[in-house]
Design a protein that fits this description.
850 residues; alpha+beta; 25 helices; 56% helix
């Protein structure tokens, strides 16, 4: 039996190649996800080692807000003097750290794959910094890292412009420094200590303090001694802890990124499983006499089943190894897709990591998916009786229609309940996403099981235009697709999965676009908007820009927006960390319309706070109530002045900008964006040149009017949709291979039928048209199922999202049409090889084919 299995396996090379390739793509996606994530981790681990290596002990403030590093209080100058007196301390260096924007002489912004970091330079400090050319920076001077200097052709004596919390300022390059042996993509600049403290708002203080040990004292022993002398709101940690925290911070980001890629890989594997199951079902149907003869010669049903599973094991093994190395190419392709969508920035580059874990996962997934998908066909193959070898009309049994419908309905109910649980459940985000993913998978299986009930009528309806255009050939194509609804629906199901997810993404994207349009009409009204130009980077810019705009006589009001979700500006309120936004009182009611439902905006400037209705309801807050808010450096009693229902602009908590500046440190004082309104009676278009005289001095920002701002939001969303759908196309490509595979097997199965048609006068062109028509019908059927299911999933996803993110529902009708056109094109392309094979058959040999 083993010899026969191997011979059967290698005799069908085309089927072997197509089926294996479908699994290869899915496994390659999994492998590529791990390779890319592990390579990124290695890059950041190397950076972490560079960061922590020179440090014996770091002294830093303890954040009152969870573990938010951005909210750590600064370390005062006086602490440096105290630490120098600790036994075992060799040296103490106060470090200023900041995130500036730097541009060279022609105004070009210095940028890279990583952030631009600024530090103070101390000649006697223990660090990895080494001046390779020039001198240490003095007043009005800056020291540049050698990799950035090489990229931008920066030389000693050049003048660069720096923007921070202070006004834009020119500095002369005094020297070039080395920050290590490798270029990790970041840009480093150094100033003398007084200048760095002034630029980043740290008068008489530092971001943290590095302490080195004397003699053979270990970092742990030194940290213990230093901690014994520190105030309660400061701590001393070793350089190893600093490195581990750095790695852990990026590991969280990389893990989320990896999980997203693995979700796409799972979709590709589900599609592969559909194709494998369909392929084995068709092939076993064609081998009934062969398997029946084996049963006549004494093979047991168990041996037949094992033979099928061994063949599946071989396909899975070959696909796993090929997919493992194919993952290297997938990782490079994903990086290129992200680079194209991210303004060319891409991901940090480093060595390729192919970890043992990746080998194991690729092999387990490839073999596991293939075996799982082949279990049902193998079970049915074991039921073939010996009499099948003597019969011409024996058909391999399929699941009874009634049982299939009941099982499909059960999967649909379970999938619907899982989706509802994911939408309305009270669990954490991971649990809800897992429920949504499981529900979607169950719904896919349910549709695949139930679709044969409608495949025949839909195939006839879809095939009607083809029959009208192609006459006899088109009619035959329609009848071929309709006469075997199980095969048609199984082939279309693979395409349905990928297109359903594409449709879901398009529905969510269209809904978000409608929300943005509505937002610009109701939630925020300004003539011009200033926002960061870089999609990669800190996402903020100097607060001085708004100050300069307000000095223009043509500008009525320029509003700074600071903090808010994702910026790290948080306060401890009601026992939990809350994102807090800072917006001037003057903005509310004139530029920002948050939808006050209780109270008013008045009083916000007097330690007031605006609260969104959701947290207000959870905490039982109403206008006039007071609450205690713990900020990084202080605790403040705030009074609720109003409750609102539109969190799209300021999030759930908002204070006046003056309050924000008092309770948050200098690292939180950059603007997220600025909204400007021109003076009454002035045409906004005529004011643009005056505003550009200011914004041109800040190349890290982009000026847009209201229409351009809306278009930019739509363009960014389109880039995201393009990236997501490009990744989903892996699954669609696998599904197209499934159509090719099914048609190739169908042509082989109908060899005698095609020969007879040719014998009675069907031309080669008509044969090709028949095969192509059948492929188009199957592809369009899959597209229709995908659109319907994707529309449902999209509606559920929109309903599950908070109204502050998506408040409108949109249906992309034009995209649905394009998807169907895409199906027609893909079906036509999938038919090229099978149609060519059918048209080139030898008529006599085909007629006598057994």
């Amino acid at each position: 039996m083993l010899k026969l299995t191997l011979r059967s396996f290698f005799d069908r090379k085309i089927r072997l190649a197509l089926t294996t390739f479908a699994v290869v793509l899915g496994v390659a996606f999994v492998s590529g996800s791990f390779v890319l994530a592990d390579s990124l981790r290695a890059v950041f681990d190397d950076i972490a080692e560079e960061v922590g290596a020179p440090i014996s002990v770091r002294v830093r403030g303890i954040s009152a807000i969870e573990s938010n590093d951005l909210s750590r209080p600064p370390s005062p100058d006086s602490l440096v003097d105290e630490l120098e007196g600790v036994d075992g301390v060799a040296s103490v260096t106060g470090i200023v750290e900041g995130f500036p924007f730097v541009s060279i002489a022609d105004g070009e912004l210095v940028r890279s794959q990583g952030p631009t970091l600024a530090y103070n330079y101390e000649a006697d400090a223990v660090s990895a910094i080494e001046i390779v050319r020039g001198d240490a920076p003095g007043t009005g001077e800056v020291l540049f890292d050698e990799f950035a200097a090489d990229r931008y052709d920066i030389a000693i004596g050049d003048v660069v412009n720096v923007r921070t919390l202070a006004e834009p300022e020119d500095f002369t390059v005094s020297g070039i420094a080395s920050f290590g042996d490798e270029d990790f993509g970041a840009v480093f600049v150094l100033f003398d200590t007084p200048t760095a403290q002034r630029l980043f708002g740290l008068p008489d203080s530092f971001s943290y303090i590095n302490v080195s040990a004397a003699g053979a004292l270990s970092p742990d022993e030194l940290a213990e001694r230093v901690n014994a002398t520190l105030p309660a709101d400061f701590e001393a940690v070793t350089g190893e802890v600093v490195s581990d925290e750095f790695s852990a911070f990026f590991d969280v980001i990389i893990t989320v990124f990896q999980s997203a890629l693995l979700a796409f890989a799972a979709v590709a594997l589900v599609v592969s499983a559909f194709i494998i199951n369909n392929t084995f079902s068709i092939v076993l149907g064609q081998r009934i006499k062969e398997l029946g003869l084996l049963r006549c010669l004494g093979a047991s049903g168990r041996q037949v089943r094992t033979s099928v599973l061994v063949e599946a094991l071989l396909i899975g093994g070959v696909a796993s190894v090929a997919g493992l190395f194919g993952g290297l190419g997938v990782a490079a392709l994903i990086n290129q897709i992200i680079s194209a969508a991210g303004d060319g920035g891409g991901l940090p580059s480093g060595g390729i990591i192919l970890a043992p874990r990746t080998w194991i996962v690729a092999i387990v997934v490839g073999i596991g998916v293939t075996l799982l998908a082949s279990l049902s066909p193998a079970r049915r193959a074991a039921s073939i009786p010996p009499i099948a070898a003597l019969s011409d009309d024996f058909v391999l049994s399929v699941t009874r229609t009634r049982r299939r419908v009941l099982v499909g309905l059960a999967f649909a109910v379970l999938g619907g309940l899982a989706v509802i649980l994911g939408v309305l459940g009270a669990g954490d985000t991971t649990t809800r996403l897992l429920a949504l993913g499981t529900g979607a998978l169950l719904l896919f299986i349910a549709v695949a099981l139930l679709s044969p009930q409608v495949a025949a009528p839909i195939a006839r309806a879809v095939g009607a235009p083809i029959a009208w255009i192609g006459r006899i050939s088109g009619t035959l194509a329609r009848n071929n697709a309709a006469r075997n609804p199980h095969r048609t629906s199984a082939t279309a199901a693979a395409l349905m999965v990928g297109l359903a997810l594409v449709t879901m993404v398009l529905v969510v994207g269209t809904s978000f676009k409608k929300t943005v349009t509505s937002l610009l009409e109701t939630s925020i009204t300004a003539d011009y908007y200033v926002a960061p130009a870089q999609q990669q980077g800190p996402g903020v810019f100097s607060r001085q820009l708004a100050v300069e705009l307000n000095e223009l006589p043509e500008v009525d009001l320029a509003i700074s927006f600071r903090g808010g979700p994702g910026t790290g500006a948080r306060a401890l309120i009601g026992g939990a960390g809350r994102d807090v936004a800072g917006v001037p009182r003057a903005a509310f009611g004139s530029v920002v319309h948050a939808g006050i439902i209780d109270g008013a905006y008045d009083g916000l400037e007097n330690d007031g706070v605006l609260v969104h209705t959701d947290p207000a309801t959870d905490l039982g807050l109403s206008p006039g109530d007071t609450l205690t808010a713990v900020f990084p450096d202080t605790t403040r009693t705030l009074t609720v002045v109003g409750v609102y229902d539109d969190a799209s602009i300021v999030g759930n908590w908002a204070v006046d900008l003056s309050t924000y500046e008092e309770v948050f440190g200098s690292s939180m004082q950059d603007d997220v964006f600025v909204a400007a309104s021109v003076a009454p009676g002035i045409d906004p278009a005529s004011v643009r040149p005056a505003i550009e005289t200011v914004t041109d001095r800040y190349p890290e920002v982009t000026l847009r009017d209201a229409d351009e701002f809306a278009q930019n939001a739509e363009d960014q969303l389109n880039q995201l949709l393009l990236t997501v759908n490009a990744l989903l196309l892996f699954a669609v490509a696998i599904a197209v291979l499934g159509v090719v595979n099914t048609l190739m097997l169908s042509v082989f199965e109908r060899t005698r039928e095609i020969g007879l048609l040719r014998a009675v006068g069907m031309t080669r062109w008509q044969t090709r048209w028949m095969i192509a028509g059948e492929a188009v019908i199957v592809a369009v059927f899959g597209g229709l199922m995908g659109i319907v299911l994707g529309l449902v999933l999209g509606a559920v996803s929109v309903a599950a999202m908070p109204e502050s993110f998506v408040s409108e529902f949109g249906v992309p009708i034009l995209w649905f049409v394009l998807i169907l056109v895409f199906c027609v094109v893909m079906g036509t392309m999938a038919a090229i090889l099978p149609a060519r094979r059918a048209a080139r058959m030898d008529v006599l040999q085909a007629i006598y084919h057994a």
